[in-house]
UniProtKB/TrEMBL annotation:
Pfam families: Ribosomal_L32p. Residues 1-24 are annotated as: Disordered. It comes from Roseimaritima multifibrata. InterPro entries: Ribosomal_bL32, Ribosomal_bL32_bact, Ribosomal_zn-bd. Signal peptide: none annotated. One of its GO terms (cellular component) is large ribosomal subunit. Keywords: Ribonucleoprotein, Ribosomal protein. One of its GO terms (biological process) is translation. PANTHER family: 50S RIBOSOMAL PROTEIN L32, LARGE RIBOSOMAL SUBUNIT PROTEIN BL32. Residues 1-19 have a biased composition (Basic residues). One of its GO terms (molecular function) is structural constituent of ribosome. This is Large ribosomal subunit protein bL32.
Length: 60
C-alpha cells in the first residue's frame, strides 16, 4: 500500500482546498416587480418567467 513519506504542510493542503468553497446564488431582479429572484426560476411574487406569465397570482 502506498504511504506518504512526509506530511503535507497546512499551506499545501489549503491551496488544494481553495476551490472547494461554496459560491453564492446568482440573483437577478424581476423586470415587472423588481424582486430578487435566482436565475432560471419563476418569480414567486408575480409569476413571471422570461417575459411570460407562468403562474397566476392573487395579487394582480
Amino acid at each position: 500500500m502506498a504511504v506518504p513519506k512526509r506530511k503535507h504542510s497546512n499551506s499545501r493542503t489549503n491551496k488544494r482546498r481553495s476551490h472547494d468553497r461554496l459560491t453564492p446564488r446568482q440573483l437577478t431582479y424581476c423586470p415587472q416587480c423588481s424582486t430578487a429572484v435566482p436565475t432560471h426560476v419563476v418569480c414567486p411574487k408575480c409569476g413571471l418567467y422570461q417575459g411570460r406569465t407562468m403562474v397566476e397570482s392573487e395579487q394582480q
